Structures are given as structure tokens and as C-alpha cells.
Amino acid sequence: MSGFGKKDRRTFLKGMGAIGALAASYSSALAQEPLTEIFQSPRRGNWDDQFDATGGRVAEVKTRQPILSIATVSYVEQAIYTYRNIVAQGGWPRVNLTTRLKVGSKDPAVRELRRRLIISGDLPRNAGDSDVFDTLLDEAVKRFQLRHGMPADGVIGNVTLAALNVSAPVRLGQLETNLVRLRSMSGFLGDRYVMVNIPAAEIEAVENGRVAQNHKAIVGKVDRQTPILNSQIYEVILNPYWTAPKSIIEKDIIPLMRKDPTYLTRNSIRLFDPQGNEVPPELVDWSTDEALTMNLRFRQDPGKINAMSSTKINFNNPHAVYMHDTPQQSIFGQLLRFESSGCVRVHNVRELTSWLLRDTPGWSRNQIEGVISTGENTEIELTTPVPVYFVYISAWSTGDGVVHFRDDIYARDGVDELQLSTTTL
């Protein structure tokens, strides 16, 4: 400032003061806008001194650690030790909710919910004992929902409440059962592989020990279960024909044809005899099982309404199942995704297809999209087959105290209480 005269210094300081006042005014305005929104909100609840009791943040749930890994085995062993201690100390309380909670709600059951989530590690231990459903408790409920494969909306509906009220001894037993399954799959599975976890209805594409892609899946119904298997993906078919399996012909198509004789034609499904000759649907007596006795093949042409839509992913197996796209994309948003006849429908299948064909020359994402747009049936053999594993893992841990549980949809864990979808819906 040695080069400044008195007048210059005065002018400079006056200017800086004006800038400071303007900045303070702007900062105040910015702070005021969200505060105004909060205080004017009609849904802000009871903002008293017990609201948002102090608590630290809990560990994140998402991870790139593959379920089928040695690390998972170690984490499950640690989780079993933790859950044995929880059981020894009396487990957690039952949550007896009779009304739907939202942020700001006040209910005696909120205290039970707090204790339940503190014991399972979803809510910090210093989160207080208020009977008000505050934002910390809301976040804890969402974390619990994520660990149980549910949409993290903070709403305690029938399925969330049922999961909350599965007892600690039952959860301990579920972890012990799944530890055996995980140990059997903890060896080297390949530098690149695909894992379909049936009870989670989810898919992992794993590369170099990390999850490269996650996909939601639709797996088999209870009466048409997706099988456990190990194989290798050797082929991707773009714009596939769909040939209906005997089970679907018998249980679905024939009953539909009895109600609506135009069903096959409207859905671009054609009939072929064992010699490959096309058979008009009107020549078949649909009031009987003649279509089965004639050994007719039901083949749907490629197209948008094709049951496999754009893509079929093939691997050898004795169950005649495969992975595929679907024209019914909305079903991936369902809470329970057990809707198929045994095959596995893949959400965002083109991402998985691009990953599978990465090392197959001439099949970039743009080339895949180009072929799909033509509607031409195209079979692509993978240069290097990719291992695929269909597994049944309904409980696992990703470390940091994060333990995941899923609905025992096929009743393989041995406890009826774990079949949430059949007891709550």
C-alpha cells in the first residue's frame, strides 16, 4: 500500500466496504431462500428440541465388491460373530406400527423402531430416544431398505415391516446357511464372469475382482424356478426368434388360444411341424391338447413384441434356460421380481451385451445398436466365452457392518418367516 496516497487509500477502502456489504447481502439472500422454503412447508412436522437427535453417519451400503469373493466369506464370518452377540443380548424389539410414518410423525412405536435400527447398525447409537420420526430415522429406514433389496423410499409398508420383524436368531441362521453356499463358490471364477443371484433378482458382471456392472433381473416364479447352474456364455443373438418351451405352451398359450383364437397371429407366433412345415393355427383343435401331440413348434418372429425383444444370451445347460431382453421394461421397477418361467430377463441388457462382446472384433456398441435397428436375426459367437453362475445367496456382507438379506423366495433357507413375499402380499 506504500504507493497509495491518503485519498487513494480512502477510495480503495470505501470500495472494498461496498463490495463486502454486497457479498454479505447476497450470502444472506442465498441462505434465506431454503430456510423460507422449510418454514413455509406444510409438511415439515413437529420441529421441537427432540427433532433430528444428534447422531453420526452410518456406513454406505453400495459397493463394488463381488458377492462371490473370498472377502465376502470373511465379512460374513464377522457378521455371524456380531449377530451371535446380538442374539446373546436378547436380539431386537418387535416394531408394532399401526399407522404410516413420515418425517415429523409422532408415535410410541417410533422408539421401538429406533432401538431396532440401532441394534442392527442402521441408526447411530447416539441418535436419541425420541418418539418423533426425524430425518435421521428416515435415513436409517432407507439404509435398512437398501440392505434388504427394497426401494429406499423411507416408507414402512408391509414388506419393510415384515423384514424389520424377522427375529435376530432367524437372521443369524440365514447368515450361517449362506456362509456354506459362499464358501463353496469362493474359488477362482474367472477374470471376467457373470453372476445371477436368484433371491436378489440381480446380476453382477465382474472383472478383475470388481463389479463392473449391476443389473436388475426378473427370475423364475415359485412354481417355475430359475435353476442353480454353472456354464459359459458362448453366444449373443440380436433380434432373436423366440421358441416357446413346452411348459409355456401347455400352461399359457393353449389356454389363451381357447379364449382368443387370434392370439398367435396378433403376437407374430407361427406354428411349425417336426418337418419344418408351417401349420395354420385354424387347423389345430385348441379345445384339446392336439398342439402338443402334434409336436408343433411355436416360434415368434423377431420384433418389438418378441418375448426376448432385442437380445438373447446363450449358454449350455440341461434346463434350456437363457438370459434375455424383454419388451416389458416396467416390471424392473417392481419390488418383487419373480415373474419369469425360469429364464432370466436383464435390465439394460445392451450394456451387458456390449461388455460381453468387448473382446469380439466388429461388435462395438454402435454396431450392436445398428444391427438391432435392422430387425435381422443375427447370431454372434463370443471370441472368448464368459463364465456364468446362477446362485442362491439370500444373505451376505460387504464389510463395515453392512449385512444384506433377501427374500427366501424358493424356501431354501428352511424358515417360513424368511418368505416375505408369500406372507405379506
Structure description:
The structure is a single chain. This protein has helices at residues 6-40, 70-88, 109-119, 135-147, 158-164, 168-184, 246-259, 263-266, 290-293, 349-356, 365-374, 420-424; strands at residues 192-197, 202-207, 210-220, 229-238, 242-243, 269-272, 278-279, 297-300, 311-315, 323-324, 338-340, 344-346, 378-391, 395-399, 402-405. Helix 2 (70-88) packs antiparallel against helix 6. The model is unreliable at 1-59 (pLDDT under 50). Strand 14 and strand 15 form a beta hairpin. It has 2 domains: 70-174 and 399-424, Muramoyl-pentapeptide Carboxypeptidase, domain 1 (Orthogonal Bundle), CATH 1.10.101.10; 190-397, L,D-transpeptidase catalytic domain-like (Beta Barrel). The strands form 3 sheets. An 8-stranded mixed β-barrel has the order 1-2-3-12-10-9-4-13. It has a 4-stranded antiparallel sheet with strand order 5-8-6-7. The chain has a two-stranded antiparallel sheet with strand order 14-15. It is an alpha+beta fold and 425 residues long. The protein is globular, with a radius of gyration of 29 Å. The protein has 12 helices and 15 strands.
Strand order of the largest sheet: 1-2-3-12-10-9-4-13
The tally of structural domains comes to: 2
CATH topology of the largest domain: L,D-transpeptidase catalytic domain-like
Helices and strands, in order, run as HHHHHHEEEEEHHEEHEEEEEHHEEEH
**Average pLDDT metric:** 85
The CATH homologous superfamily of the largest domain corresponds to L,D-transpeptidase catalytic domain-like
Q: What gross morphology would you assign?
A: globular
Strand content: 15-25%
What's the tally of helices?
12
Helix content: 25-40%
- Give the C-level CATH assignment of the largest domain: Mainly Beta
Radius of gyration: 29 Å
| C-alpha termini separation | 77 Å
Please describe the biggest sheet, giving its number of strands, its sense, and whether it closes into a barrel: 8 strands, mixed, barrel
Q: CATH architecture of the largest domain, please?
A: Beta Barrel
Contiguous runs where pLDDT drops below 50 for at least 5 residues: 1-59
Overall SS class = alpha+beta
Number of beta-strand segments: 15
